[in-house]
Design a protein that fits this description.
The chain contains 2 helices and 5 strands; from the N terminus they run ααβββββ. By secondary structure, it is an alpha+beta fold. The model is unreliable at about 10-20 (pLDDT under 50).
């Protein structure tokens, strides 16, 4: 019985997707608007597969840390990561593109 349970747990572990596949991937974008008072940034970006966005678009994101908004200005090319946090698309990391 214990051997069967151990084998089942092992097989389920093999079937689970790798953790990095679920994590955010950096996306390239361009800063179109910054709203520091609301903690939001408008980005023109490419596809974000991790959020189910198969095509690029321009959209408003909340930012996890408002200090990120002081690091960029309108027109900057950036690389960012975003997540769907409680129904709101939120930038979790953002830096100027190299």
């Amino acid at each position: 019985m214990i051997q069967t349970l151990a084998a089942a747990i092992f097989v389920l572990g093999l079937m689970a997707p790798p953790v990095h596949a679920q994590g955010a991937t950096a996306v390239k974008g361009e800063v179109k608007k910054i709203d520091e008072s609301a903690g939001k940034v408008t980005l023109k970006h490419g596809p974000i597969k991790s959020l189910g966005m198969d095509e690029g678009m321009t959209m408003v994101f909340r930012v996890k840390d408002p200090a990120m908004l002081k690091q960029v200005k309108v027109g900057d090319n950036v690389e960012f990561e975003a997540e769907n946090a409680g129904g709101a698309y939120t930038v979790t990391k953002m830096q100027k593109a190299k």
